[in-house]
Amino acid sequence: MQGLFRAVRSCQEMAKVAVLRHSLGGDPAKMKKLFARLGCVTSMHQYKGLENTTVADVLRAKEGQQVGPWLWCRSDDIVHDAAKKMAENNVGSLVVLKPGDKQLIAGIFTERDYVKKIAGDGRPAKFTRVGEIMTDENKLITMSSDTNILQAMQLMTENHIRHVPVIDGRIVGMISIVDVVRALVDQQGQDVKRLNDFIKGNYY
């Protein structure tokens, strides 16, 4: 159990320090002072990997998720069909494209949109268009594939969003807060291995 607690604490420290390091521009003096104040025991050199990790790196790590029709729907699609596509592909959001053959973005459709505007408002999913309940393009937040993973995390937390389309002139993928957390956790090495061993039942 002590190994589990150490692993969890290490992951928590990593997320906390990574955000602080990024927001302070990596100033060593400021970081050292904050480390002492917050009681962080992890040294700064462990976070250099995150500074060099981009959204493109995270997308490459998502095996078997090449860009394709599973990633989007059209604004005139039926909500029931869009929700079914999300369930079949195990994703929490779809980029919404405008009607037609071109990839012109109209907004984003997420699980939250479904819960609040279909289940919450009692609308019939089979008779509602995606465009009626999606998050509109003027409120849509996107990022490019060369965005640093710490910037991505900051963008998501500041705007209280869990899914962000990745656009490089065209749709190249979707990144979620789960992907960001996984990138953080991947830096933990042996601590994460001990945590996984515990979850898989290798600890009594």
TrEMBL record:
Which CDD domains does UniProt cross-reference here?
CBS_pair_bac_euk (cd04623)
The answer, when asked if DNA-binding is one of the entry's keywords, is no
Q: List keywords of the entry alphabetically.
A: CBS domain
Query: Superkingdom of this entry's organism?
Result: Eukaryota
CBS domain segment(s): 66-125, 134-192
Q: Does the keyword Transcription regulation apply?
A: no
Q: Name one Pfam family in it.
A: CBS
Known SMART domains for this protein?
CBS
Which InterPro entries does UniProt cross-reference here? CBS_dom, CBS_dom_sf, CBSX3_CBS_dom, Diverse_CBS-Domain
Membrane-crossing residue ranges in chain numbering: none
PANTHER family, alphabetically?
CBS DOMAIN-CONTAINING PROTEIN CBSX3, MITOCHONDRIAL (PTHR43080), CYSTATHIONINE BETA-SYNTHASE (CBS) FAMILY PROTEIN (PTHR43080:SF12)
Question: Which named protein is this?
Answer: CBS domain-containing protein
Task: Write down the species.
Answer: Opuntia streptacantha
* Taxonomic path: Eukaryota, Viridiplantae, Streptophyta, Embryophyta, Tracheophyta
